[in-house]
Amino acid sequence: MSDIRMIALVLTMALVTYLIRVLPMAFIRRKIENEYLKSVLYYLPYTVLAAMTFPFVFYSTGNVLSAIVGVAVALIASISKRSLIVVAILSVFASFIILIAF
Where in the chain are the domains? Predict the structure, then answer.
């Protein structure tokens, strides 16, 4: 991935996250009472960031198989309540092992 494309993606993610946080404050003057709306506004930036970055996970290693194994290990480790650093280390290690093996 070129540096210009990477910078454009990071700036787009920053802009989307910033706008989603600022626009409600700019246009809504009273406190939001609706719990559903509050939860949507809370989780929306994380959802957008995940939707923008997750597809690139499968092309990050240059080998789709190793990326799939890394994602699977990360999902299993996160479901089993491991810390973020442990999930990252396990998934990178699993991807690395698959890259070496194949």
Answer: 1-55, 58-102
**pLDDT tens per residue, range 39-48:** 988 898 889 8
User: How many residues in total does the chain contain?
Assistant: 102
Q: What is the largest CA-CA distance in the chain?
A: 59
CA distance 102 to 100: 6
Q: Is the overall model pTM greater than 0.70, yes or no?
A: no
Instruction: Decide: 77 and 86 in contact? Cβ < 8 Å.
Output: yes
From first CA to last CA, the distance across the chain in angstroms is 23
> What's the DSSP call for residue 36?
H
Alpha-carbon distance 38 to 22, whole Å? 14
Contacts of 61 (CB under 8 A, 6+ apart): 67, 70, 95, 99
Return the closest-CA partner of residue 45 out of 7, 75, 71, 15: 15
